[in-house]
Design brief:
By secondary structure, this protein is an alpha/beta fold. The protein contains 8 helices and 10 strands. The strands form 2 sheets. The protein has a 6-stranded parallel β-sheet, with helices on both faces. It has a 4-stranded mixed β-sheet with strand order 7-6-8-9, with helices on one face. Bound molecules: NADP nicotinamide-adenine-dinucleotide phosphate. NADP nicotinamide-adenine-dinucleotide phosphate (NAP) binds next to loops.
């Protein structure tokens, strides 16, 4: 495929590397080349099969609007825009494109979501829950999209849909660490996922782009990763 990677930062650069390893034709652009959406005009997108976005919350909505209106498939790893999810879903449906997003594209984290969903049953048995997340100091959003997703699935599992508190830490070069602690008067359960590098996110995003080819619709990665 011809893949346009938006964002040449910590994750976007690994996405471009992996897409190239998987024999796609890759073009990457950063903020400078994409000033005022220059890389996302209809004529610039002409030959692109799929756009993969790992940029920043302030520009993601404009990127989505430009790519979807141009009829392009999109994989969105950028977080911090989920309050606009209904608007994006209807835009994708209206333009009949294919779109997949995830707060976390790693297969390991998606397995962790399943484990967390199962462990969250403890909330029905007099356990209280807490979520801790740690990321590098330059991460722009807090709490992380992954922590918010964990909070959502724990809310669904709790008897009165209570919100489990999230505590965020920003320190050093931490790639992404998520912990769940479930505590009762008798014991404690600890669950932890610790990303060793950005490779897991990038591989999942590239494989999601391959999966989207020939499809239409609005998908969340947690519902489709088993099909990759
Ligand atoms: N879903 C997942 O699995 C996953 C995993 C990791 C990260 N993320 C998310 O992905 C996003 C990026 O994370 P990161 O750690 O890679 O951040 P980063 O290192 O800060 O990289 C962001 C990049 O986006 C570029 N950028 C900013 N505005 C742009 C625009 N309008 N057009 C094109 N490029 C633009 C920046 O370019 P300049 O350097 O030129 O400003 C920068 O290189 C964040 O929202 C993060 O939460 C998601």
């Amino acid at each position: 495929m011809n893949v346009l990677v938006l964002g040449r930062g910590k994750t976007g650069s690994v996405v471009a590397e992996i897409a190239t390893e998987r024999r796609h034709h890759v073009h990457s652009v950063g903020a400078k080349e994409n000033a005022e959406g220059a890389a996302l005009r209809v004529e610039s997108l002409h030959r692109v099969d799929c756009v993969i976005d790992f940029t920043a919350p302030h520009c993601i909505l404009a990127h989505i609007q430009a790519c979807v209106k141009a009829g392009k498939n999109m994989v969105v790893g950028t977080t911090g825009w989920y309050e606009d999810i209904d608007h994006v879903r209807s835009l994708v449906e209206q333009h009949k494109t294919a779109f997949v997003y995830a707060p976390n594209f790693s297969i390991g984290v998606n397995l962790f979501f399943d484990v967390a969903r199962s462990a969250a049953t403890a909330l029905r048995h007099e356990y209280s829950g807490q979520i801790f997340e740690r990321h590098h100091v330059s991460k722009k959003d807090a709490p992380s999209g992954t922590a918010i997703a964990l909070q959502g699935l724990m809310r669904e599992a709790s008897p009165h849909h209570e919100e489990v508190e999230i505590t965020s830490f920003r320190e050093g070069e931490v790639v992404g660490l998520h912990e769940i602690v479930l505590e009762s008067a008798a014991d404690r359960i600890y669950l932890c996922h610790d990303a060793k590098s950005r490779r897991g996110f990038a591989e999942g995003a590239v494989r999601a782009a391959e999966w989207l080819a020939g499809k239409k619709g609005f998908y969340e990665f947690k519902d489709v990763w088993r099909e990759l």
